[in-house]
UniProtKB/TrEMBL annotation:
Domain PAS: start-end pairs: 211-293
NCBIfam families: GGDEF, sensory_box
EC number(s) per entry: 2.7.7.65
Gene for this chain: cdgB
All residue ranges annotated as the GGDEF domain in the record: 429-559
Entry keywords, A to Z: Coiled coil, Nucleotidyltransferase, Transferase
GO molecular function: diguanylate cyclase activity
Broad EC category: transferase
Coiled coil residues, start to end: 187-214
Annotated ranges, domain PAC: 282-334
Name of the molecule in the record: Diguanylate cyclase CdgB
Family matches, as PANTHER family: BIOFILM ARCHITECTURE MAINTENANCE PROTEIN MBAA, DIGUANYLATE CYCLASE DGCP
Pfam families on file: GAF, GGDEF, PAS
Length: 559
């Protein structure tokens, strides 16, 4: 049960992490950003207490934000710890990636240093792995994810809600969050500098040249990509100026960048996202083309800049590299939706794909007949798309708008319809659901061990995947149960597919020099709108057991 729930826990953690990371960029000032960092640890990472220690210009660290305890905030906020004491702390204990964990057995030597700290009374741990009240966990915020960049500050966390020391999944989430927090703090400082430069450009007419120089330096030496583009007119969106960071990010010289606009560089699938981004305060995450033809994920944030008080306006775009975060998100999402052993879609992903093809309204309803009739009347529909036998166009819909220009109750959903249930194949096609249960697998597992059983499951998954079309889905429900989704099949087609897959599974499977065999029982069901995913799978499961009982025992090939 725990293994089956792990993908859901991971997906929940990913969603919470994505939410608190997104909130980091909504703060309007550095102080708001620091408090948002502390609040995010409490709201999204499963700790009850967090403090953000920010590096000051003199190198010491000041407690800039506290979340989770009013008493801790009153005691610690605004207090300073020396850089030497902090470096001593970060060099002690255990290294968890970029994190530093100092267990209570080692941390007693830190009780009397000058770093502000807060401890709550509590009993010693009862079990190995429990969190001790004097355990310490620090998440340094560096400007690079490998922990080798400039140190901007340290997040101190305490009191995990589950009372346990963080597992590897929580450690990875905290590392990612610390790096995203460092980016948010850097960006907040950059935004503050940019805002001050913009105010000077608008209000200090006498110091215009000095303001432009300040803007130039902030633009040119910004750690993230920056671009100025034309706004309005025939050349709207054309890049006028780019900084070195953006040129390096895209692998293009500044002279070449001036020939493009962002619409020329954006991935074709993301052009809609770019067009929906508002000019004033708009933000979007999309992919931009590099010179070598590859694409990189970036975050675009726009603002409008006036050249002079009454002069033309330009679009200032801040381009932030989020490739690493997107890669982690995709990896985490894949782990949450796929079986760790076989790499196939797991039960949750199977149900999601199946549910996406189904709706609660069965084809043949009056509203569907109306939608089909209207579409055919307009010359764009196929009267066979919705098998509403016996219904004339508009039958039962008197009084509803029939004009082509009127509002049609058509939701653009292509209904999934099951083929006829009769004994003869009438040629209709549908979404076949093949439920596969291996015969003889338990005996292999019992005789030769889980290593051999896992190898058999991996090979069966490979054979099933090789036996279907590219657009079909092969998923593992768990144990020795698999499900195949194959669209566009008739009754005879589905039966032929089941025979082919069974024959593909039967040949011996060699594991560590030993040949073992399993058989397979298939149950075929049909998905159709008006059914739920659970109903479809239960139907296929029941038919599989009927087929398993009806087949002669001699026909099942076991190890």
């Amino acid at each position: 049960m725990e293994a089956e729930s792990e993908p859901y826990v991971r997906l929940t953690t990913l969603r919470q992490l994505h939410k608190v990371v997104a909130e980091l960029n909504t703060a309007r000032s550095l102080a708001d950003t620091l408090q948002t960092v502390a609040d995010g640890v409490i709201n999204g990472l499963g700790f009850e207490l967090a403090a953000v220690n920010l590096v000051r210009p003199d190198g010491d660290l000041v407690v800039a934000a506290v979340a989770g305890s009013a008493g801790a905030e009153a005691l610690m906020a605004g207090r300073v710890g020396s850089r030497d004491s902090w470096e001593r702390r970060l060099s002690m204990g255990e290294r968890w990636g970029t994190l530093c964990f100092v267990p209570y057995t080692d941390g007693w030597v830190l009780d009397d240093d000058d770093v502000p700290q807060w401890h709550t009374a509590g009993p010693d741990p009862s079990f190995n792995g429990d969190w001790h009240p004097r355990d310490r966990l620090f998440a340094p915020m560096h400007t690079s994810p490998d922990g080798k960049g400039e140190l901007l500050g340290v997040i101190s966390v305490d009191r995990p809600r589950n009372g346990r020391r963080p597992n590897s999944w929580s450690v990875e989430a905290l590392q990612m969050y610390a790096f995203q927090s460092a980016i948010a703090i850097s960006n907040s400082r950059l935004r503050a500098n940019m805002q001050r430069a913009l105010v000077r450009l608008e209000r200090e007419q006498q110091a215009l040249r000095a303001s432009e120089e300040s803007f130039r330096q902030a633009f040119e030496y910004a750690p993230s990509g920056m671009a100025v583009a034309e706004m309005g007119g025939d050349q709207h969106g054309r890049l006028l100026r780019t900084n070195d960071a953006l040129c390096r990010l895209l692998g293009r010289p500044a002279s070449a960048m001036r020939r493009y606009s962002f619409s020329d560089l954006v991935h074709p699938e993301d052009i809609g996202t770019l067009l929906r981004t508002s000019a004033e305060g708009g933000r979007a995450e999309l992919r931009l083309a590099r010179r070598d033809g590859s694409y990189i994920w970036v975050s675009l944030r726009n603002s409008v800049v006036a050249d002079t008080a009454d002069g033309p306006r330009f679009l200032l775009t801040h381009v932030e590299d989020i490739e690493e975060r997107k890669r982690h998100e995709l990896q985490l999402a894949h782990r949450a939706s796929h079986d760790a052993l076989t790499g196939l879609p797991n039960s949750a992903e199977l149900r999601a794909r199946l549910s996406a093809r189904l709706c609660g309204r069965a084809p043949g309803d009056a509203a569907d007949a109306y939608a089909v009739s209207a579409a055919v009347f307009a010359g764009v529909g196929d009267p066979t798309a919705y098998p509403a036998e016996g219904l004339e166009p508009y039958e039962g819909l008197e009084g509803m708008e029939r004009s082509v220009g009127g509002a049609l109750p058509y939701d653009h959903h292509v209904h999934t319809v099951a083929p006829s249930d009769g004994p003869a194949d009438d040629g209709s096609k549908g979404l076949a659901v093949l439920f596969c249960d291996l015969d003889g697998f338990k005996s292999i597992n019992d005789r030769f061990g889980h290593h051999t059983g896992d190898a058999v499951l991996i090979e069966v998954a490979r054979r099933l995947t090789s036996g279907v079309r590219d657009g079909d889905t092969v998923a593992r429900l768990g144990g020795d149960e698999f499900v195949v989704l194959a669209d566009g099949l008739g009754t005879a087609d589905a039966q032929d597919l089941a025979v082919r897959l069974r024959n593909a599974i039967i040949p011996p499977i060699r594991v560590d020099g030993r040949a073992v065999r399993v058989g397979a029982s298939f149950g075929i069901s049909w998905a159709g709108c008006g059914m739920t995913a659970e109903e479809v799978l239960q139907s296929a499961d029941q038919r599989m057991y009927v087929e398993k009982r009806s087949r002669a025992k001699a026909n099942r090939r076991a190890g």
